[in-house]
């Protein structure tokens, strides 16, 4: 059933839930539907309504105190369905490499492995309405270095729309709209959660109380740590933050313009006019000491034909622009059968960096909660990954006389600053907020354990991309659903009705 907390006066606590979930986005709705199907009684709290509203979005505002980033109320959506409402539908699983710790990537490694998520791939694919297979193939004559990788594309599924009728009809799920979490109450020993406290927009000081056996925070990679840091009524540093790790290791996928390419028809191995997706092999990542990254090459379709022709000529003939890795290409002659030119952009994972973080601003929102402040940082490994992905593909093309690559100017010299978001049409990030309540084997390395339970609180769990220790090169939605189904299995086994 669906209720509007704005229309309900504060009063008697609502109790008897098996699992209480804060957050009505991809993770929260997936978990509620899954657990209800297992016969559990579920509370689902959504801080917004069924549609976007200014009053709800305002809560997401907060300062950017690091490198430039998108306004926080623009990068996130606070209504039923969450950020699935602006998701483009890109889907791909994590690679096996992503789960393993690597010496050249500090803070890397998961306490679980790819097969732990693969068990839930079929169900996750059905939820997202995609095939569950990914036809990756080696790149001819570069099998040790690169693969062509396949993405599947969801319609995309808007979770609030897809599951609205099911949520209305369910006798197992109570969905409360406009329910803003304002506190998480603990036992006297501070080792278990007892209640969620919420307020609505009609009376921001009123307290609504919800109680259950298990509790889940599924509010996203910025809002979940913001709330955990705000909950200080019983823990002075915030819930789950005894080691000062909540909010740290913030990651997004750095979307970067890597350069342009030119190629000749006879040897170009891809479909003309379509974007092609490369990814590095584990051997290439280890050899070049880079993180995971997706490289996307596509045609230039929005510039005059004459400009493309001149770009082709300069790419093949200007040795200075290619910085040596294709200096002898075609013996210095410009071939006549050049047929295509295009862009190269990179979607790169970031190194988990504890100094890249979500913290609390001094300003408070309408509920008296301190706003999120984002200090997004990138480092030399992030730059190194992007640069050597582009150089690697350029070398592959040049050595096989397929074509040539011109690196983006900012990659030609490590002394050049990494461009800020908004300085170029291709420079930005993915709105993929990850890593801020990271999963780990021990509490000195992360915020939640391998079962997504907050260390020290045996009935409080976190769902969503904030638990990612590393983020690979793929969009996070499919792994979020896989991890959430895995969490649902755990909760059903350990918090039975």
Global morphology: globular
The name CATH uses for the topology of one domain is FAD/NAD(P)-binding domain
* Helicity, as a percent range: 10-25%
CATH superfamily of one domain: FAD/NAD(P)-binding domain
Say how many strands there are.
20
Low-confidence stretches: 303-308, 310-338
What brief labels describe this structure?
497 residues, alpha+beta, FAD/NAD(P)-binding domain, eight-stranded mixed β-sheet, 20 strands, 23% helix
Can you tell me about this structure?
By secondary structure, the protein is of the alpha+beta class. It has a domain at 2-133 and 156-252 and 432-494: FAD/NAD(P)-binding domain, CATH 3.50.50. The chain is built from 13 helices and 20 strands. Strands 1, 2, 3, 8, 9, 10, 11 and 20 form an 8-stranded mixed β-sheet that branches. Helix 1 (26-37) packs parallel to helix 13 and helix 5 crosses helix 13 (477-494). It is globular, with a radius of gyration of 24 Å. The two termini are 19 Å apart. Mean pLDDT is 89; it is low at 303-308 and 310-338.
């Amino acid at each position: 059933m669906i209720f509007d907390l704005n229309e309900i006066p504060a009063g008697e606590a609502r109790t008897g839930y098996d699992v209480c979930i804060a957050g009505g986005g991809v993770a929260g709705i997936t978990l509620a539907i899954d657990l209800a199907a297992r016969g559990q009684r579920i509370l689902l709290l959504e801080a917004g309504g069924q549609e976007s509203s200014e009053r709800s979005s305002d809560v997401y505002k907060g300062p950017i105190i690091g490198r430039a980033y998108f306004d926080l109320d623009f990068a996130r959506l606070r209504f039923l369905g969450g950020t699935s409402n602006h998701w483009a539908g890109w889907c791909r699983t994590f690679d096996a490499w992503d789960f393993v710790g690597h010496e050249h990537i500090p803070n890397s490694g998961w306490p679980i492995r790819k097969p732990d998520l693969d068990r839930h791939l079929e169900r996750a694919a059905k939820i997202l309405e995609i095939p569950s297979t990914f036809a990756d193939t080696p790149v001819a004559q570069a099998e040790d270095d690169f693969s062509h990788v396949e993405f599947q594309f969801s319609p995309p599924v808007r979770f609030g729309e897809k599951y609205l009728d099911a949520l209305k009809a369910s006798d197992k799920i109570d969905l409360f709209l406009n329910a803003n979490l304002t506190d998480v109450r603990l036992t006297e020993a501070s080792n278990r959660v007892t209640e969620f406290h919420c307020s609505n927009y009609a009376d921001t000081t009123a307290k609504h109380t919800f109680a259950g056996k298990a509790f889940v925070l599924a509010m996203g990679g910025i809002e979940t740590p913001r709330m955990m840091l705000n909950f200080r009524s019983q823990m002075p540093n915030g819930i789950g933050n005894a080691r000062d790790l909540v909010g740290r290791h913030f990651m997004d996928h750095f979307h970067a313009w890597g350069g342009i390419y030119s190629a000749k028809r006879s040897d170009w191995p891809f479909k003309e006019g379509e974007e092609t997706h490369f990814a590095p092999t584990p051997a290439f990542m280890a050899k070049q000491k880079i993180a995971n990254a997706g490289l996307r090459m596509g045609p230039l379709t929005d510039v005059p034909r004459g400009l493309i022709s001149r770009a082709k000529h300069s790419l093949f003939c200007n040795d200075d622009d290619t910085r040596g890795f294709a200096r002898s290409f075609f013996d210095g002659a410009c071939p006549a059968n050049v047929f295509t030119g295009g862009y190269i952009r990179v979607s790169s994972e970031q190194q988990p960096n504890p100094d890249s973080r979500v913290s609390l601003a001094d300003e408070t929102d309408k509920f008296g909660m301190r706003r999120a402040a984002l200090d997004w940082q990138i480092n030399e490994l992030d730059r190194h990954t992007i640069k050597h992905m582009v150089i690697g593909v350029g070398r592959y093309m040049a050595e096989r006389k397929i074509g040539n690559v011109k690196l983006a100017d900012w990659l030609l010299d490590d002394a050049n600053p990494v461009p800020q978001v908004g300085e170029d049409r291709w420079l930005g990030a993915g709105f993929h907020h990850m890593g801020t309540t990271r999963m780990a084997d021990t509490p000195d390395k992360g915020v939640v354990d391998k079962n997504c339970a907050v260390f020290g609180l045996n009935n409080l769990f976190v769902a969503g991309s904030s638990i990612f220790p590393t983020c690979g090169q793929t969009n996070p939605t499919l792994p979020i659903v896989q991890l959430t189904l895995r969490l649902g299995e755990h909760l059903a086994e350990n918090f039975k009705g």
